[in-house]
Amino acid sequence: MTNAGGEGTASIRPPCSGLQAPVRVTEDRLVVDTRRMSIEAQYCAPPVGDYDLWLHHLIERPLSYSWDGQTLILSNDRGSLTFEREE
Q1: Tell me: the pLDDT tens digits for 13-70?
Q2: Sign of the Cα pseudo-torsion (17, 38, 63, 66, in order)
Q3: Are the beta carbons of 64 and 74 closer than 8 angstroms?
Q4: In this predicted structure, what is the pLDDT of residue 5?
Q5: Rounded to two decimals, what is the model's pTM?
Q6: How far apart are the C-alpha atoms of 42 and 4, rounded to whole Å?
Q7: Which residues have a Cβ under 8 Å from the Cβ of 59 and sit 6 or more positions away?
Q8: What is the rounded distance in angstroms from the CA atom of residue 81 to the CA atom of residue 66?
Q9: What are the helix and strand counts (H, E) for the chain?
Q10: What value does the mean pLDDT take over residues 71-78?
Q11: How far is the first Cα of the chain from the last one, in angstroms, to the nearest whole number?
Q12: Of the residues 22, 27, 42, 55, which has the fewest C-beta atoms closer than 10 A?
């Protein structure tokens, strides 16, 4: 993600195809502007294509986030993603 702490662009690379979208970051939310999202056009058979579909459904709604310096958790009522910092 670029320009965290306001508005920026998120580049997301699930197993099948990537996407880029404008994002807005507030004190407790990350909002992806899916109306202006660009998606790589690529077909992937299940189950790989299902991961992309799940991710698209997840980011359609605002995401709460928490960051403790080691772990970033993004979540909403559709699910969650957890990222660990690599050493």
Answers
A1: 777 888 899 999 888 899 999 889 888 778 888 988 888 889 889 999 999 999 999 9
A2: positive
A3: yes
A4: 58
A5: 0.79
A6: 29
A7: 12, 21, 32, 34
A8: 11
A9: 1, 7
A10: 96
A11: 19
A12: 27
